[in-house]
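Holo prediction. Input below; ligand is iron/sulfur cluster.
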Amino acid sequence: MHEKCGVAGIADLRGEENVVPDAAALNLRLIHRGELGGGLSGVTDGALWTVKGNDTEECTAPRADLLAGRRSTSAIAHRRYATSGERSEIGAQPFQNDDFSFGFNGTIANYASLAARLRERRVALGTNVDTEIIQQLIVEGIRLAGRGDMRRVFRSLENELDGSYTVTLLGKDGDLYGYRNKLGNRPLSYAVIGGRIVVMASENSAIEDIYPGARTHDVGPGQLLIAKDGKCELQDVMREGPEARCFFEWTYFARRRSTIDGMPVAGARDAWGRQLARMERLKPDGAIVVPIPDSAETAAHGYADESRCPLVMGIEKVREGRTFIEGHPVVREEKARLKYKLHPELLGGRKVILVDDSLVRGTTMTALVKRLRAEGHVSEIHVRIACPPILAPCFYGIDFPEIKELIARLNFSGVLTSGELPEEVLTLIAARLGVDSIRFLPVESVPQVLSRHCHGLCMACVTGEYPTHAGRVLHQVEERKVRAQ
Ligand code: SF4
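Structure of the complex:
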């Protein structure tokens, strides 16, 4: 079972202010990174405590009854989503023992071999979640290096773990740590407020929402942020090796008002929308640009501005939720149907350029297309995807389905290292979706835009070029499975 989530931490360096309400507020601001559940840990009178659960409102908002009497001058918070069918309470974070509590965002690609190795050494594993493996490795690292040298502890994690992870850790003394692994696959931001409150979160927008005007910074790949003994310090743990920032954070996962490694999410989406418009072969005659809300709105705006076609908000989102992570196909379809309200008064009889941020299974798109024709009375639908086609699995924290469920793979075997899918494949995908045409962003447009501010990307789910050994091995296994079917 693998987790991909949002993490946050906060500490008053003077050890005076109760930060529990702000930790709960941070948790809420990261809810888009994990709707399944959440949790908080703090330290009161030298003892760690944790409140957590799945589908529990108490962990999404600072509810007075649950947090009443909870006081801590440092805390961590966690948002969780898990792969379909694997939603047990057992995976809820933070994970706590007597010494520390920690939360993690990412996925450990070499989970199976690490678990086997720990079991060989008779380490009792109570769950099948990768969080527990990390906990065991931190315990081991602390035993060898001591709590005074957390840099060494995280370096030992780097030597063991293959995958993506950011970790926030709260010690029983109230010391707070935030570590972003050397790939930098998942983001981590921080700010120091008024010289005394240290805040860290997966996305800087969460910090800025709570502390307007805060100057946020990125914890770089392989860096450790420490708030301890009245001081805040950023240390290098392991900075060698390739960096592999997940481009999907900009495409879909992060809030559009976030900035990751200097590159604003909204700026990237806008640029990709413009790129789609520049490569357009369709005659604009009377076409309207309609975004699929919310994450495609910025790309659609860029497309509309560049193409001079009007942007029309003909689809309204009525339900929060990320359908590509919903388990059963029937549930997914029903949720996709309930998710949107159409405005036929804006759409009727129009040629629609439908812009989406990405296309994974195509379930939501297929359901929506049927409704656009039946209820929206549109005359044509041309889908434009502000992301290259997803053609391979992710082993680093984004829960894409199996290869055989990826719509772009149904008519194309393999991956794409540059350019676009062949025209005949696009025609087949369009037919499957029931639309008049479809185009994806060319592969090279992603680094072209993001490299304005940051380099070292992971695009393995498009190109098949996995940045780690375990990722490459798992990909080969998955491809062999597909070929054998
Ligand atoms: S494989 Fe794709 S989704 Fe996964 S980390 Fe890499 S870019 Fe992100």
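The longest strand covers residues 3-12. That is the main takeaway for now.
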